Amino acid sequence: MAKILVVDDEITSITILKKVLEDAGHRVTTVSDGNMAMEKIKEFKYDIMLTDFNMPGMNGIELTEQAVKIEPDMIVILITAFATIRSAVDAIRIGAFDYLTKPINKEELLLSIDRGMERVSLVHENLLLKHKLEQVEPGEAEEDYATANKDIKVMLNEAKKVAKTDSTVLITGANGTGKEVLAKLIHKNSLRKDQQFVVINCAAIPTQLLESELFGHVKGSFTGAIKDHKGYFEIADNGTIFLDEIGEIDIMLQVKLLRVLQEREFSKVGDTRTQSTNVRIIAATNQELKKMISEGKFREDLYYRLNVFEFYLLSLKERTEDIEFYFERFIREFSAVNKKKLPAIEKNVRDFLLSYPWPGNIRELKNVAERVSILCENHKITSDLLPLNIIGVNQSKKYTEDYNENKESIIKEFEINFITKHLKIHKGNVAATAKSINFHPVSLRQKIAKLGIDPRDYKY
Amino acid sequence: MENIDSNLIDFSIIQNLIELGGDDGKEFLKEIIELYIQQYPELFNSIKNNAENNNANDMYQSAHALKGASLNVGAKEIASLCKQIEFKGKANDMTQIPELIASLENVYPLTVGELTKLY
Question: For labelling alongside A290, which of A26, A197, B7, B85 has CA 20 to 30 A away?
Fold first, then answer.
């Protein structure tokens, strides 16, 4: 669907154009002269302007010249009752995309609109690709959400049904439980599957930058805004935006997001014009939003707008059948990637895995599977390949007769629990953790390495 | 439809309008023709008044607008007369304008008669 501004001083032409374009599913605004068109362009963002060539006052060429100064990416198609090579060349020279003649031919008009929208999509795709190249992605999300847990299987079926609608979805659950994978599954099962799917981690981007990334900004709207910038609500129009860590979003930005959900409209930072957007929002959080509402940190109206459908993803310790299921799956995947024969898994490895609480959930389990897959020799996964924090927690329960051995084991258990707890509080930041526990940062780094702790597991 | 005067009406345009209207093709055709009949007097009077006041540029603009509207409903004889007025106005040539306006006055009721037969 394109947002089209039709400019013509002649009522039958306007009526015919409106009918053809609306029947083809486009959103059409009509005005009868160039000045009114400029007013509309200043108020609202259009994909395409379809304008008559010869109008009293400002003609089509003059209008195009002025309009592209404000909206350089807008596609302009000129229409005239009498075409000359000269006027067509003039139109293209000043930035018009195409040139049609009256009377309107439906096929010709819709083909021109489609070609125009292809160019709009290409511009948006280029921006997204540029963004993806700039982003450091921890790894592509899996194509589908696999599970051995029957409750999650039921939930996935519900998610696929909800996917077909345009309803907003809220996904809750601890870090590493696969919220992004579920969001991607919903997008891929939706009618928007051929459109953009954009992932934004609200916690990873400072507030002002996040506002600009979501809504865009105009040149000069703040220091450093040296040119106009398109936001994701514009780039991903007709697609899906996944807002991860929605609980981290600033209260002022929550108001702007609420407007998008309610009105399907927004304005760029520093811009008075309104733009419409047809984006589906899937939000996710590991925080208790209701508690945040009572603390005044999250807007209640936004919560109810986001929470049209809520899916809660159980943590791994709440679905132990998935521990072995995922471990075997990841081992198969990493063996294939590393071109190794599929190894056998010793029984005590399974025991260690099952009794570990997995605070980092599936993400942590995947890291462990990658580690043992790389380290394993003779096609066998043995418990000595597991990180110390997994073995340590379990060994502490099994005392031997040796005093020193038991003492070391208990100290190690304490160290692992204590350090990981504080790493979690400080989101994997070793320096901040060291400061908070009154420990030298270099010594803490050495200890973390010795204990086999990976601070990245506690980053999110 | 066979008794429509092809000197006045381009029937391919009428068929095109019916197709554009889809399921309500005839209704859509009626709507466009009625809009045309509604705006005709204002545009015609503007041509006539500007011609009488020797205002060639405004006469050209009105003739251009009426030509576009006439082309939309297949009123090809009116469109042709408007095109001649438009060219003359653009060239600031006011010769034969009264004759062309008189022709418009003659052709219009005949054209409307043909157009209203269509629905």
Answer: A197
Which CATH number is associated with domain A3-121? 3.40.50.2300
Nearest-CB residue to B32 (from A12, A23, A56): A12
Test mutation, B11, B18, B20, chain A, max A CBs within 10 A: B20
Delimiting residues of CATH 3.40.50.2300 domain(s) in chain A: 3-121
The enclosing domain of B71 has a CATH number of 1.20.120.160
Residue B22 to residue A15, Cβ atoms within 8 A:
no
Q: How far is A77 from chain B (nearest CA, A)?
A: 17
- Of A183 and A207, the structure prediction assigns the larger pLDDT to A183
Distance, in Å, from the CA atom of A180 to the CA atom of A203, rounded to the nearest integer, reads 14
A15 interaction partners in chain B (CB closer than 8 Å): 31-32, 35
Output the furthest CA–CA distance in chain A (Å, rounded).
101
**Alpha-carbon separation of residue A60 from A38, A80, A87, A111, A405 (angstroms):** 12, 9, 10, 21, 87
Query: Hey, what CATH topology would domain A150-313 get?
Result: Rossmann fold (3.40.50)
Any CB–CB contact under 8 A between B109 and chain A?
no
Spatial separation of the C-alpha atoms in residues A433 and A427, rounded to whole Å? 9
Domain range spanning residue B30? Answer: 11-117
B1 in a structural domain = no
Which chain A residue lies closest to B74 (C-alpha atoms)? A103
CB B109 within 8 A of CB B75: no
Query: Looking at the partner chain, which of B35, B65, B72 has a beta carbon nearest the beta carbon of A9?
Result: B65
pTM of the model: 0.57
Q: Mind listing the pLDDT tens digit for each residue in A22-75?
A: 988 899 999 999 999 999 998 888 999 999 988 878 888 889 989 988 888 899
Residue extent(s) of CATH 1.10.8.60 domains in chain A? 318-458
Burial call A285-319: b when 16+ CB within 10 Å, e when fewer: bbeebeebbeeebbbeebbebbeebebebbbbebb
Mean pLDDT of B34-47: 94
Q: Chain B residues with CB inside 8 Å of A32's CB?
A: none
Question: Given a cut of 90, is residue A254 above it in pLDDT?
Answer: yes
pLDDT score, position A230: 87
What does the pLDDT look like over A196-206, one tens digit per residue? 899 998 988 88
Does the residue B95 lie in any domain?
yes
Q: Which residues of A touch B67 (CB under 8 A)?
A: 81-82
Segment (H or E) for B16: helix B11-20
Q: Do B64 and A16 touch (CB under 8 A)?
A: no
Number of domains making up chain B: 1
- A318-458 is classed CATH 3.40.50.300: no
- Residue B4 inside a domain? The answer is no
| A269: DSSP letter | B
How many contacts (CB atoms, under 8 Å) link A and B?
Answer: 58
Contact assignment for A11 to B39 by CB distance below 8 Å: yes
* Token digits of residue A236: 């991903």
| Per-residue pLDDT reduced to its tens digit, A393-419 | 555 455 667 788 778 878 887 888 889
Tokens coding A425: 């509080």
Q: Reply yes or no on whether the pLDDT at A136 is more than 60.
A: no
- pLDDT given for residue B39 in this prediction: 92
Q: Which of A8, A9, A11, A12 to mutate to test the interface with B (most CBs of B within 10 A)?
A: A12
Asked whether residue B15 is domain-assigned, the answer is yes
